[in-house]
Design brief:
Jelly Rolls, 31% strand, mainly beta, single chain, AL/BT2_dom
């Protein structure tokens, strides 16, 4: 961006045009549109451990982000369930780290991922799960591979948007679309049949569920978690 365009952008910002919210806050426009924060930079009360009522002390708040400080924190999920929604969040993974974002999670299975599709979080360069392209960050885990243009190195913040609208699942990472598929449609059935989930009873069977964050034993951070429920 040249000097003239930088000056123009600065004048727009000072005039209040195109302004965005600070971390973990909503703009007035977002509030009017029905967005809700899942984390305000301080309060973890909207989250609890999978099959638990409380939250492990391994999940902490650090510099305005939710941080899994080490292994043993357990997977966590929202107290509320969601059907059709637009979910936005930022994540950052430690070197060699692995984590994930779950949707449509329930607590009837042994693990949080028993029935819940996962959007992968990974240090694509160092973690050994990088051998399959469907296991790289931003992918629909073990089903749809994210394009390289969506990837950033470990230690950098990534922006994810997950849109679920009447069965149509669309995901973007860092502004790049990584997933577009209709859950239970023909393409979905083909992908499931070719994945590790082929013989998992109840996988993705829910029409509503919790949002989940994974403890894969590695340090990971989340911020700017917000959701807008869609009208049916």
């Amino acid at each position: 961006m040249d000097t003239r365009h930088r000056l123009y952008a600065l004048l727009l910002a000072l005039a209040g045009f195109g302004a965005s919210a600070a971390d973990n806050q909503l703009t007035a426009e977002e509030r009017d549109q029905g967005w809700q924060l899942l984390f305000d930079g301080e309060d973890l009360s909207q989250w609890r451990n999978f099959k638990g009522e409380g939250l492990s002390d391994k999940w902490v708040v650090e510099d305005g982000a939710i941080k899994l400080s080490g292994p043993g924190g357990g997977d966590i999920l929202t107290r509320a369930r969601y059907r059709d929604f637009d979910l936005r969040l930022d994540w950052k993974i430690s070197e060699g780290g692995n984590s994930g974002i779950f949707i449509l999670a329930d607590e009837t299975g042994e693990r949080i991922y028993s029935h819940a599709p996962e959007i992968q979080i990974l240090d694509n360069e160092r973690h050994p799960d990088n051998q399959l392209d469907t296991h790289l960050s931003g992918s629909l885990y073990d089903m749809i591979a994210s394009p390289p243009a969506s990837h950033r190195p470990a230690g950098e913040w990534n922006q994810v948007r997950i849109l679920l609208d009447r069965g149509q699942l669309t995901v973007w990472q860092n502004g790049v679309q990584t997933v577009s598929v209709r859950i239970h449609g023909p393409e979905w059935q083909r992908l499931v049949a070719a994945s590790k989930f082929a013989n998992w009873p109840g996988f993705a069977a829910n029409d509503s569920g919790h949002i989940g964050l994974q403890d894969h034993g590695d340090v990971v951070w989340f911020k700017n978690l917000k959701i807008r429920e869609l009208e049916r």
